[in-house]
Amino acid sequence: MVNRYSDICTILINEIDQGLFLEGERLPTERELCGRFEVSRETIRRSLKHLIELGRIHGIQGSGYYVRRQGQHMKSTINRFSSITELIRNANLTEGDLEVQIFKRKPNAQEIQLLDLSSQDVVFVIDRIRTANREPVVYSKNILPQSIVGADFPEKFEPGSLTKCLSQKYGITIAEALMEICAVTDEDMLPYRLKMSNSPLLKFIQVHYDPKGAPVFLSYDFMRNDMIRFFVRRT
Question: Where's the HTH gntR-type domain (predicted)?
Fold first, then answer.
């Protein structure tokens, strides 16, 4: 009998490393693991959650827990500005977009403040899921003033990096970004594809500025922390 959830994690990690569970293979069910280790379902769920946080497995709602393919873990420092596309490509993965929607609306109070807008301005909302090797890793919502890109922005938009699109189509350079890291709350509306992963999420609110210090666009990014980890160098 194994009492501690950390011991169960160690055993399962060793079995994965030894090839007893192959990449992409489904783990035994929670009930089967409870019987094997003679512990409660709460202990097993805590163990599985920790393995998700370590990036060793991922969960699919209604299906089970699967061994994660190695090499799909991305690391970055938040000391230097980089786009999501760069982050994915630097991990030797292929980026992609899912469920892309572009629509116009009036800015809310936070967007008016952060982007220096008025209540009469109009913004484009670019709503999409960013993928790495076809696996959803980031839910991204970009807020871009129409006054900057014009009414025909949806026709000029290209999938991938928004900063690259702005540079190539409009000659706009993003020099820096001011980022706030927040907790994900029940008020945050997340797409089903990201919810079904059962993965821990980090929420980033970023204002992107041009070389003159003028705000260009605002982004809300919900990143899977089992796939993307961030580090800060402190001296």
Answer: 2-70
